[in-house]
Specification:
The complex is a heterodimer of chains A (499) and B (418). Chain A has 499 residues and is mainly alpha-helical. Chain A is built from 27 helices and 4 strands. In chain A, helix 11 packs antiparallel against helix 15, helix 17 packs antiparallel against helix 18 and helix 22 packs antiparallel against helix 26. The relative contact order of chain A is 0.10. Chain B is α/β, with parallel strands linked by helices and 418 residues long. In chain B, a hairpin with a 5-residue loop joins strand 3 and strand 4. About 8% of the residues of chain B have low confidence. The chains are: A mainly alpha (499), B alpha/beta (418). At the A-B interface, helix 13, helix 20, helix 21, helix 22 and helix 25 of A face helix 6, strand 7, helix 8 and helix 9 of B.
Chain lengths: 499, 418
């Protein structure tokens, strides 16, 4: 019996040890792997550049993006997108043309469908410019990790242009509430999203009112749980973070009176209306909240940001995004410890992640299926195609089920293989790669040229160099294919579907 | 049955490489293997994501508690301006669902009141997952119940299950292959991969046994089966584009496309689509307004589905589900928050329609779930299992494969199928 026990336990340990501590990936694969994960994919020659300066230095640069000069061509392309520089109140003034509309919005009367549609038509330009800017930055920014993290956090604190006034403010939301904190302190990021009118409208908190308060009237008569629930379930603690329906209701009361007004003294347009706020003392997540106004919300955000459940939830999502769909628990735990120890310093947590054996494990290599956005952007970066008009990309992303800023669910887009791999997605990715590399009109359209303009054909050998190592099967399939399909096959290869 | 066996059965795996050059071979092989029965029974599931307000869909117009709890958004009694459409002595239908009244009168539309998933969560995402895996409360189930059902159906074909949407939702995830088609116009346009030479080159790239190759091969096979229908659809859309303005919410158009595909292609046995925008925390409106607009397009779309399915409607069951209901009481912003029990909608030739099924628990405070929500008296699995048993002829043991670990306590007592 004891002997059997030892054998069994030995088998158990072997069974665990082997997958738990698999081999580190070969050195030759490391830079490609790093660029696949912390950028939107390598551009031609970029692997050699990073190899020249070394992985550590590259990481430090990317983790401290202000040290990197931004690319002048990118700045040139962003310059004409003037709505990017307007604040939420300015956008509202400029793009709702009648005084009546603004009065309706200010007096928070219910807008009829026709008015909403008319506003939508006028505001299309605001959406389009925000979407274009996102595509252009992802393609050309030197601060790739910052772009990746802006993408990650926007999605984590998702706001959809499909809902109400949020459609006007998605671009400003990203610029004002997400980007400055993408590598900073989680608490500041959380606060900036909580105050921003895009979030206030998207999750209905602008109308959240203490029912017994003097300001409770008209359409503002009572509590709205929407933001409070998603704030805990999605933004911080996670669905199993240990809160009750009572906590949801209390948190909704804490955020009563938070909203938007045109005459705000803040640039983002946030206003706190004390006459709609429940200022009473409360107990939230077992902690006493003293009577007060806006500071009650600040205190709740502190509690949420410092909770170990939040550290675990954010760490899981980061590990899933950067390492594997089903990330190693040991890594998640270490990230959570770092998160708590640094009071949510995102840069420190990421550094721990990028220096972890799990990140450099050979199992992590090419383990993440690209989302449609990642597939499109990485392909265009690999081709080094000058994109002036990304509208056809936006159409493709709509058909792939991933419209830019258009995720209707507050959960944001998933980033797992099971969520994005479908038979139709495969056919469409392969077809898009074919059109992009073989057919002139699509490339010319992206490039802002007339359909028949004479672009040089894609050189499959150069493209292959940028893409990195390919399996023997892939190389064989490409070698035996017609020349005008070789580049398409490269961008369609199983290796390129993953990052 | 798993995906690999399936592909071997339909002759798509290794041989698929060769068949790639002969699109029609695949189809004819599948036909000779098992000729589709003359009237295959089909199931279409429509998921309303975001939790539709079932109390304003199926209006309990006799309940004074309903009108007290909803001073601004209640649907007036039948006969009043903007009133509910009377269904029976207890319930009325939201007036925006008027397009469904012919189906109600004709006896092919039914509702199951106070139904849903017994898990207590008020998280949209957990509740949707539970309703899609079919195992409420158990997060370890990865596959969806429609995928498990697919494995049980006798004929196997790459278009046997069709999902309208760009990705495969949880309910259809699993070992069995599923075809999908994006929503909206543009989904039916030709692709470079429709050309034989191009397809052949990609076939060499994806000839393996790995997940990606299998998914690609399934997609190619499904595309070939549906291709002629898609071309016809494209033609029809081109004509339609000249006639009318596009609808603001596109469900009727997508419904038409889905119905035509199902009518023309008998191999499609299971279909799924999801509609969003039901999470009405503010300004949901009453007889008119935001929810009314959405219901209007849903009702119109369902009527279009029934009409376009034609004779196939008799053999089709359409189930409309939502993850949970909404609070009985309206909130202070003219909306409703996350609740519990809801209404399940059933349409089709095999449905005992023109009736509201299930047990109405009432809206008095002591009858409410946790003092705020409509209680659940029928587990959604009992209703679906009843449909599977009567319409798709599943055995009791097969029902347990679809909904493992469930006892089907109420299934027998439900009289929802003819």
């Amino acid at each position: 019996m004891p002997f059997k026990f030892w054998i069994l336990s030995l088998l158990f340990w072997l069974g665990c040890l082997v997958p738990c501590f698999a081999a580190e990936m070969p050195d030759s694969a490391k830079v490609g792997h790093l660029l696949d994960r912390i950028s939107f994919g390598p551009r031609p020659g970029e692997v050699a550049q990073v190899e020249a300066i070394g992985i550590d230095r590259y990481l430090q640069q990317q983790l401290n993006p202000t040290t990197l000069p931004e690319s002048p061509p990118l700045q040139q392309r962003l310059a004409p997108l003037e709505t990017l520089r307007l604040s939420p109140p300015e956008i509202l003034r400029q793009f709702t043309d009648t005084r009546q509309q603004i009065r309706d919005l200010q007096q928070r009367q219910q807008l009829d469908t026709a008015t909403v549609r008319s506003i939508n038509r006028q505001t299309t330009v605001v959406n389009q410019q925000a979407q274009q800017a996102k595509v252009l930055r992802s393609l050309y920014s030197n601060r790739q990790l910052e772009e990746v993290m802006v993408d990650f956090w926007y999605n984590h604190f998702n706001v959809s242009i499909e809902k109400g006034l949020s459609r006007l403010w998605a671009g400003d939301y990203e610029q004002r509430a997400i980007r400055p904190y993408a590598l900073g302190q989680f608490r500041q990021l959380l606060g900036a999203t909580a105050y921003h009118p895009a979030m206030q409208y998207y999750l209905d908190n602008w109308r959240n009112t203490a029912p017994e308060s003097p300001g409770a009237r008209g359409a503002y008569r009572g509590l709205n749980e929407n933001y409070a629930r998603e704030l805990m379930e999605l933004h911080t603690l996670g669905v199993e973070g240990g809160y009750s329906q009572q906590d949801v209701t209390t948190l909704a009361r804490i955020f009563t009176g938070w909203g938007f007004c045109q005459e705000s003294t803040r640039a983002d347009g946030f206003c706190f209306e004390a006459q709609r706020h429940d200022a009473s003392a409360k107990v939230f997540l077992g902690q006493a909240i003293a009577p007060g106004g806006l500071e009650q919300g600040e205190q709740a955000l502190d509690l949420l940001a410092n909770s170990p459940a939040t550290a675990a939830h954010i760490s899981y999502k980061l590990a899933q995004y950067f390492v594997a769909d089903d990330p190693p628990q040991a890594l998640v735990n270490r990230l959570a410890q770092k998160f708590l120890a640094t009071e949510g310093n995102i840069r420190q947590v990421l550094l721990t992640l990028f220096q972890s054996p799990e990140f450099w494990d050979s199992q992590a290599l090419n383990a993440k299926f690209k989302t449609p956005f990642q597939f499109v952007i990485s392909s265009l970066r690999a081709l080094n195609l000058p994109v002036k008009d990304p509208s056809s990309l936006l159409t493709f992303l709509n058909l792939q089920g991933m419209p830019v800023y258009g995720c209707e669910s507050p959960q944001g887009y998933p980033n797992t293989e099971i969520a994005w791999l479908s038979s139709d997605a495969m056919l469409r990715r392969l077809s898009w790669a074919t059109s992009l590399t073989r057919d002139r009109p699509l490339r010319n359209r992206l490039n802002g040229q007339p359909p028949a303009a004479n672009l040089p054909p894609v050189n499959p050998n150069e493209l292959a160099q940028t893409l990195g190592s390919l399996s023997a099967e892939t190389r064989d399939a490409i070698a035996t294919s017609p020349p005008n399909l070789k580049a398409a096959l490269l961008l369609s290869s199983p290796e390129w579907m993953y990052r | 049955m798993n995906r690999r066996q399936f592909l071997q059965l339909t002759g798509l795996s290794a041989a698929g490489t060769l068949l790639g050059l002969h699109p029609w071979t695949t189809v004819s092989m599948a036909q000779t293997r098992s000729a589709p029965s003359h009237s295959p029974k089909r199931l279409l599931v429509i998921f309303l994501r975001g939790a539709v307000d079932g109390l304003n869909v199926l209006v309990p117009y006799r309940e004074s508690a309903y009108y007290q709890a909803r001073p601004n958004i209640a649907i007036p009694q039948p006969g009043q301006p903007g009133g509910a459409l009377q269904l029976d002595d207890t319930f009325g239908l939201h007036p925006a669902l008027e397009p469904l009244m012919p189906l109600w009168r004709q006896g092919s539309l039914a509702f199951l009141t106070a139904s849903g998933s017994p898990d207590l969560t008020r998280s949209h995402f957990d509740a949707q997952d539970y309703m899609e895996t079919g195992t409420p409360g158990d997060k370890s189930t990865s596959a969806g119940w429609l995928n498990r059902l697919l494995a049980i159906l006798p004929e196997q074909d790459p278009v046997e299950a069709l999902s309208l949407g760009a990705s495969i939702p949880r309910i259809l995830q699993g070992t069995m292959p599923v075809a999908n088609l994006p929503l909206g116009r543009g989904a039916t346009r030709p692709l470079p991969l429709d050309q034989a030479q191009t397809a052949a080159a990609f076939n060499r790239l994806y000839s393996g046994q790995d997940e990606l190759s299998q998914t690609f091969q399934e997609g190619l096979a499904a595309r070939r089966t549906l291709r002629s229908h898609l071309l016809a659809e494209q033609q029809a859309e081109r004509m339609a584009a000249d006639n009318g303005a596009p609808t603001p919410i596109n469900f009727p158009e997508d419904a038409k496309r889905l119905a035509r595909l199902m009518r023309q292609e008998p191999k499609i046995r299971l279909a799924f689509t999801a509609l969003g925008g039901w999470d009405t925390h503010i300004d949901q409106g009453g007889s008119q307004g935001e929810l009314a607009d959405r219901l209007g397009s849903l009702g119109q779309g369902l009527a279009v589905l029934a009409e376009e399915l034609g004779e196939v409607y008799a053999d089709t069951t359409i189930a409309v589900l939502s993850e949970f209901g909404r609070t009985v009481r309206e909130n202070g912003n003219g909306g409703t928050d996350h609740g519990h029990g809801n209404t399940l909608w059933l349409l089709g030739g095999g449905i005992r329609g023109g009736q509201v099924h299930g047990e109405w628990p009432g809206l008095e405070r002591d009858r409410l779930h946790q003092g705020r929500d409509l209680a659940i008296t029928t587990d959604f699995r009992d209703a679906i299992a009843n449909v599977l048993q009567h319409q798709l002829q599943l055995e009791r043991s097969q029902l347990s494969q679809v909904f493992p670990g469930y006892g089907f306590g109420k299934m027998r007592s439900l009289q929802i199928c003819r």
